[in-house]
């Protein structure tokens, strides 16, 4: 059988590409999370272990105050957690949202995937499930989060994420009731870059098996019960070992409307380079919300990766971490926002 030179070239590129496997990539300069994920991947060889251990390290270290306990108090001063983990081989997913009293949110998400027939558990019921599974109930409030909440109360409860309510959320802390719908929000929305530093992590083993996950304590001063993009499949993260994986970070209330992680994976399935897929997913959101805050990381089946971010007042460059067979330790990478 005659084989064209192009075929040999493509096979060579494929083999060369796989030399960058295994791979761990995560959002933000969370180096300890990268290292923990890499160590787990080298130890057990399981991508789910890598994702869980990497995200859990951030939960323990309270990465940037936006992951784990003691951060992002809601309007009542309580910290709640969201997390997701996805197996790119089986397409199984476990997720928790509005989790209370349990520090290890990514561990609970994995328990949902492996100990139930469900995909997501939320709120108090998720917390009870976690306790039944042996997770320790602890207070997620710290002196730091309590101080953030106290200062917020002293500042007339600003920033505030309510609209079309009475009394005016710019002048009072409530209670709130509905008023006639307005064309625009009652006040100016305040978005702090450090309220959105979700860890999104992708792990790929030497055979191309993929997993992805997220963990966050959500938006500071959120309305109680608010769930962002992080635990939503296809929004916060998505993995399919036949195509690629992606994870997002940023203004979840906007980003979740576009399922950017799912979109990026589908673009890679159709042959798009990871960098192009990431940029296309951000561009889709940008058409409707030109100044939104957000970024995404992508990796394909050969271990090639990329990232993209929207150029917003609070973000002109996005940093992320990478470790693969070509590096002895986690490497800080960056991409210029567009």
TrEMBL record:
Keywords: Autocatalytic cleavage, Hydrolase, Protease, Signal. It catalyses: N(4)-(beta-N-acetyl-D-glucosaminyl)-L-asparagine + H2O = N-acetyl-beta-D-glucosaminylamine + L-aspartate + H(+). One of its GO terms (cellular component) is lysosome. Residues 1-19 form the signal peptide. It is an enzyme of class 3 (hydrolase). GO terms for molecular function: N4-(beta-N-acetylglucosaminyl)-L-asparaginase activity; peptidase activity. The active site is at residue 198. InterPro entries: Ntn_hydrolases_N, Peptidase_T2. Belongs to the Ntn-hydrolase family. This is N(4)-(Beta-N-acetylglucosaminyl)-L-asparaginase. It comes from Cyprinodon variegatus. The lineage of its organism: Eukaryota, Metazoa, Chordata, Craniata, Vertebrata.
């Amino acid at each position: 059988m005659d084989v064209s030179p192009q075929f040999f070239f493509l096979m060579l590129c494929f083999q060369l590409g796989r030399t960058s496997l295994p791979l761990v990539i995560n959002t933000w300069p969370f180096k300890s999370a990268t290292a923990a994920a890499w160590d787990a991947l080298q130890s057990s060889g399981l991508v789910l272990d890598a994702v869980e251990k990497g995200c859990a390290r951030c939960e323990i270290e309270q990465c940037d105050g936006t992951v784990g306990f003691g951060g992002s108090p809601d309007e009542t001063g309580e910290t709640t957690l969201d997390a997701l983990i996805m197996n790119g081989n089986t397409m199984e997913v476990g997720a928790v949202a509005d989790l209370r009293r349990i520090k290890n949110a990514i561990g609970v998400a994995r328990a949902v995937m492996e100990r139930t027939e469900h995909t997501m558990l939320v709120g108090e019921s998720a917390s009870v499930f976690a306790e039944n599974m042996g997770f320790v109930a602890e207070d997620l409030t710290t002196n730091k989060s309590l101080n953030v909440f106290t200062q917020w109360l002293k500042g007339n409860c600003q920033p505030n994420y309510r609209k079309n309510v009475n009394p005016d959320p710019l002048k009072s802390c409530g209670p709130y009731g509905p008023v006639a719908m307005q064309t625009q929000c009652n006040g100016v929305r305040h978005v702090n870059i450090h309220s959105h530093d979700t860890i999104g992590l992708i792990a790929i083993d030497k055979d191309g098996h993929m997993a992805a996950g997220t963990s966050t304590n959500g938006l500071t001063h959120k309305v109680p019960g608010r769930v962002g993009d992080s635990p939503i499949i296809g929004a916060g993260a998505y993995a399919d070992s036949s195509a690629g994986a992606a994870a997002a970070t940023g203004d979840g209330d906007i980003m979740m409307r576009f399922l950017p992680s799912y979109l990026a994976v589908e673009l890679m399935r159709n042959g798009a380079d990871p960098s192009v897929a990431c940029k296309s997913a951000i561009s889709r959101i940008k058409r409707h919300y030109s100044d939104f805050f957000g970024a995404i990381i992508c990796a394909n089946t050969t271990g090639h990766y990329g990232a993209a971010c929207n150029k917003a007042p609070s973000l002109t460059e996005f940093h992320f971490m990478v470790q693969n067979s070509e590096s002895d330790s986690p490497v800080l990478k960056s991409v210029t926002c567009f």
